[in-house]
Amino acid sequence: MTTEQPKPPSTTEQPATYAGPPPPHFIGGAIPPLPPGYPPFFTYPPPAEGQQPDSNGSTAPPYPLMYPPGMVYAFPQAPPAAPPAPPTTPRPKRKQVKMACTNCAAASKRCDENRPCNRCQKYGTADSCMDGQRKERKKGIKRGPYKRKNKPQTVESAYGVIPPPEVGEWPQGVPPPNAAGAPPIYAVAQFPPPEGYYPVFYPPPTAYPPPPDGQPNADGSQNSGQPPPPIMPFYIPGFPPFPYPPPPGTVFQFPPPGIVAHPPTASQPATGAAESEQEQQAEEKDEEATCVNPADLSDAAATDSHSKAHDGDANKTDEDENVEDGSQA
DNA sequence: GTCGTCGGACCATCAAGAAG
DNA sequence: TTCTTGATGGTCCGACGACT
Ligand SMILES: [Zn+2]
Ligand SMILES: [Zn+2]
Predict the structure, then answer these.
(1) How far apart are CA A220 and CA A312, in angstroms?
(2) What strands, in cross-sheet order, belong to the sheet with A42-43?
(3) Does pTM surpass 0.90?
(4) How does strand A65-66 pair with strand A42-43?
(5) Which residues share a beta bridge with A74?
(6) Residue A229 and residue A209: Cα distance in Å, rounded?
(7) Which of A44, A204, A235, A246 could potentially form a cystine with A250 if both were Cys, beta carbons 3.0 to 4.6 Å apart?
(8) What gap in Å lies between CA A156 and CA A246, rounded to an integer?
């Protein structure tokens, strides 16, 4: 994804409580204030194709949009000075024959597996069309230490999120809450975000263990070992994205206990990657829970699931494509 | 137009090094 | 033992010039 961090509201810089105007026709109590450090469930859609940043360099709409938790993705802000990237179609990989004939090799032209090869037949050099001698690779050359760069992808590397920690164990690479620059919350991806999106933050499902050094947090508090205060998500019926302020007649409601959201359907913005494992995990986890399509009820509960992507490297086959060589008219 | 030459991008292979 | 990295040796694209 992108290394640029998002500017939309779901960051720690945002006020922890919703400060906007009360939504019309709100039912079910006041919008619950978010615990300190928790971002609101607001996000923006990605900029439309060809949309230019405004004078502030922002491609966000003038109003926030609400997605139900479990499908909440913000999108990373495009760098203001970034020129519009031209659409690039990756060139198909060029196939090579295992061994070109001596004539083709000398002329640096495309050969094929046939003997005589196509080119030699065409130019009447079939009698001299034969394989050359391949040199043997040198052995025993010292190479020095390698840089490891293709580690198995984690949720974090794939989606820019940090998996929740086990109790009593700090996740690798995550500073404790009292450390400078520590994230106030952990990020949990419910579903793979669409291209160009990153998941919104959720509170960790487990307690913060005491900091390794026993020091208080940056805000002076001590980790109690208790789970952090949960975010009480709120929802509106319908299909995401929801405009905010919501249109007149919108009814807010809290999710009944045990209600979980379905993964995005094909009509929703989501990548197709890694969905099966997540779905399975979600189903296993919430077997007893009632599943409600958000399009029907717009309910969701923040459940924890990750996905992993692994970069396989298996390209050992070799088939020739018998492409006619030669200049055309 | 065809054909030969050639620089260099691209590709497949595989030994060395790293990890499990 | 298996996987990953990266150097190596190779193919062949595409530009160019000579020639017909
Ligand atoms: Zn050939
Ligand atoms: Zn040949």
Answers:
(1) 46
(2) A42-43, A65-66, A242-243
(3) no
(4) antiparallel
(5) A198
(6) 15
(7) A246
(8) 33
Instruction: Judge contact between A44 and A74, C-beta under 8 A.
Output: yes
Q: What is the DSSP string of A200-255?
A: PB---SSPPPPPTT-PPPTTS----SSPPPPP---B-SSSSPEESSPPTT---BPP
Q: pLDDT digit string (tens) for A209-220?
A: 444 444 554 445
**Measuring CA to CA, which residue among A7, A326, A2, A41 is closest to residue A200?**
A41
Measuring from the CA of residue A142 to each C1' atom, give the nucleotide at the shortest distance: B16
Nearest CA among A182, A161, A186, A192 for reference residue A276: A192
Distance A314 CA to ligand 1 centre (A): 28
Q: What local confidence, expressed as pLDDT, does residue A101 receive?
A: 93
Instruction: Please tell me whether any atom of strand C lies within 7 Å of the Cβ of A135.
Output: yes
Other beta carbons within 10 angstroms of residue A77's beta carbon come to: 19
User: Closest Cα partner for A199 from A270, A281, A296?
Assistant: A270
Using CA atoms, how far apart are residues A240 and A74, in angstroms rounded to an integer?
A: 13
Name A residues 27-86 whose Cβ lies under 7 Å from strand B.
none
- The confidence band for A87, taking pLDDT boundaries of 50, 70 and 90, is low
CA gap A307, A283 in Å, rounded: 14
